[in-house]
Design brief:
The chain is mainly alpha-helical and 278 residues long. It has one domain (3-259). Helix content is 60%, strand content 7%. The strands form 2 sheets. It has a 3-stranded antiparallel β-sheet with strand order 1-3-2. Strands 4-5 form a two-stranded antiparallel ribbon. Strand 2 (99-102) and strand 3 (108-113) form a beta hairpin. Helix 2 (27-58) packs across helix 6. The longest helix has 32 residues, at 27-58. The radius of gyration is 20 Å and the shape is globular. It starts with a helix and ends in a 19-residue tail after the last helix. Mean pLDDT is 77; it is low at 1-6, 185-206 and 263-275.
């Protein structure tokens, strides 16, 4: 089986988890499903990296999966929400070995990474950006900003900032857990039936060496992306997140929404994103 069909299968499983998260009324279950989606993405990236190493080891002429770059539209010029959308992309990219360059006006970003990782980032960005906008709009609709005595624009920007902060923490924790657990295989009977461990190519291994091996292959992949980025990036200067005035209470509302965020199903990766209107 080629790497690309395998990646599409893993992405389909991730989208299925997101669909289930969207349909549940339980914030705890939704949180668990979001975490599971990121963990699955990380585990697939580890498995694919090991497969690439072993294939290259067997046949030096074989072509390993290579990094690529994609342009992702953030929004029309002048939209205040563009910078928050970029911040959300950066939070997602950081946990998936993707590097980003951003246009000076935040209307688009260029993402650099492995194809499968870019697919995951796009899927997460589409879902989370829509939910961030919808949650903020819902809070404004019921008058949360008036209850706090905060201007609607300040409330929205603070809410977005808190939401992105929570998402960054959750995805990083999910990635860390996936790396630590890589190689542990639960049999059909579940955890009660016992747990086996395996390392590269199915070899038996203890949890610690397996996690170390996972970290090594991810580091190698990250270095490939870094080298590709260094060779192809045309960025000059540095991008700065939004400097809009913040309200701590609205920020906490956004952080709570990010902690409970569920991700909805997407008909296709790379489809149109719901804009963050101001």
């Amino acid at each position: 089986m080629s790497a690309r069909p395998a990646g599409e299968k893993a992405l389909a499983r991730i989208v299925a988890l997101l669909a289930k998260a969207e349909s549940t009324d339980s914030s705890a279950e939704a949180d668990a499903l979001v975490t599971k989606a990121q963990q699955l993405a990380t585990l697939h990236a580890i498995d694919l990296a090991f497969a690439e190493h072993e294939r290259a080891g067997r046949d030096r002429r074989s072509r390993r999966e290579a990094p690529e770059q994609r342009v992702l539209a953030m929004g029309e010029p002048g939209r205040r929400g563009n910078k928050f959308l970029v911040s959300l992309l950066v939070a997602i990219a950081t946990s998936n070995d993707v590097r980003c360059d951003v246009a000076h006006n935040s209307t688009y970003a260029v993402a650099f990474g492995m194809p499968g990782d870019l697919d995951v980032c796009e899927a997460l960005l589409v879902s989370l950006s829509a939910q961030m906008a919808l949650r903020a709009a819902s809070a404004l609709r019921v008058g949360e900003h008036r209850r706090l005595g905060v201007d609607a624009r300040v409330y929205r920007s603070s809410f977005y900032s808190g939401f992105v902060t929570a998402i960054a923490v959750r995805l990083a924790a999910a990635r860390e857990e996936a790396v630590a657990s890589w190689g542990r295989v639960e049999p059909e009977g579940g955890a009660a039936a016992g747990r086996a461990t395996r390392g590269p190519a199915g070899r038996a291994a203890s949890d610690a060496p397996a996690a170390q091996s996972a970290e090594l292959v991810l580091r190698d992949k990250s270095e490939q992306v870094h080298d590709f980025y260094a060779a192809h990036s045309r960025a000059r200067g540095s991008w700065r997140p939004s400097a809009a005035r913040r309200d701590g209470r609205a920020w906490r509302h956004g952080r709570k929404a990010g902690e409970q965020a569920s991700l909805g199903p997407q008909p296709e990766v790379g489809g149109g994103k719901r804009s963050l209107r101001q």
